[in-house]
Amino acid sequence: MTSLSRLSVLCCAAVGLLAGGCAEPSGDPSQAQKSYGRPVDATDAIPAPAVAAEATLYTGPPVTVDGRVASVMPDGCTLYLMTGDGPPLRVDTTRPDEGTCAWQVPPETDGFAVAAGTLRATGDTLRLSANGVRVTPVRTSHPDP
Predict the structure, then answer these.
(1) Are 55 and 119 in contact (CB under 8 A)?
(2) Please, what's the b/e burial string for 86-107 (b: 16 or more CB within 10 A of its CB; e: otherwise)?
(3) Which 8-state DSSP code applies to residue 25?
(4) CA distance 46 to 26
(5) DSSP state string for 89-132
(6) pLDDT at residue 6, rounded to an integer
(7) CA dist., res. 82 & res. 88, Å (int)
(8) Model confidence over 59-73: pLDDT tens digits?
């Protein structure tokens, strides 16, 4: 092998190593998710705007809702999910006794949340008493119910 051929092989190998080392990481959103409280199965999650639009259909029995996090209260016991044009859906932690939260979401939480629990309406406020919440950087349900 001539020195020019060896140089060509070495250059190709170096370029291949550099290209492989600079590749984008395989972004698996499940690696960035965090769960609080009981595990939440997002398979049948309903988008928060759909729940807000037809709240009477979802009030009472257990329901799983997902949506973009609008805000989290400083104590981490309550978070709000955007519902579109209406008021946000309030997601409260279950409280085993007065004044205690079963789980807490960090106030700086951003992204999407999937919450499972029981929905009730009080005036124009929808409240989900949630057994658990899973926060993820991407939406887990389909945008259209």
Answers:
(1) yes
(2) eebbbbbbbeeeeeebbbbbee
(3) P
(4) 28
(5) EEEEE--SSTT--S----TT--SEEEEEEEEEEETTEEEEEEEE
(6) 45
(7) 5
(8) 999 999 999 999 999
